[in-house]
Amino acid sequence: MASLQQQHRNYTANSVYGGNLRLVAAALPGNVSSSTTLFATATTGTAPNTVYALGQCGGDQSATACRDCIAACFQQAQKMCPDNKRVAIFYDTCLLGFSDQDFLASTTNSDDQEVSLYNGQNVSSHVAQFNATAYELLSSMAAYIVTMDNSSNKFLTGSIAVDAPYPFIYGLTSCNPDLTPGQCRGCLDTAIAEMPQQFIPNTKGARIAGLRCIVRYEVFRFFNGSTMFQLPPPGAAAIQDDGICFLTSMLLG
């Protein structure tokens, strides 16, 4: 689990903003979990005490698991970022963001609501080939996700075969369902382009997670269900399975 907060913008529990946030915390877990896309936004109250919020769960999560995860995000926000007006919480199974400023119209990940994490283990050989293959997978998935029949979910898992000792590289791309295909592609492309700048070049896995889109790759399967997209060797056709969606457990273990 990872959290982000913006300093010096606090509220008190008995304030109008605090009351509006409690209303959002009571309603949003159910609204997200009852949505067909496991995604919902909320706007509660009037300025300057309006609460803007966004929640999203992994598409392979049950409604109960989704509701529990969003509720846990609110609980963690109170523990880790007490009385802070602008907070983002990331689990592998869900994410939550809320603020006193309207961020819902944004179609990109803002720097203060985005986390960059990497696998602590490194590739020891064929580093350049490994990196090129990982980014090829993510870029291909970013291109494919916006063409899917069920693109309203905007979630895709994928893999590509590589040489031993890592038989596969696994990838994940995800956008908020309210983004257009072009907005989703733009958010993913930006996140993928940031990865070489954010991470050491030989890491076995890395991710950039924001409130609008997520990209991730690893040398192990980190998502539930079957792989939806398989990037083939050059000259072969891609294989996809349109029957699955979304993420896994906790972001920081």
From TrEMBL:
Record-annotated Gnk2-homologous domain positions: 1-103, 111-222
CDD domains: Gnk2-like (cd23509)
One Pfam match: Stress-antifung
PROSITE patterns associated with the record: GNK2
InterPro entries for this protein: GNK2, GNK2_sf
UniProt KW keywords: Repeat, Signal
Gene3D superfamilies assigned: Gnk2 domain, C-X8-C-X2-C motif
Protein name per the record: Gnk2-homologous domain-containing protein
Organism in which the protein naturally occurs: Miscanthus lutarioriparius
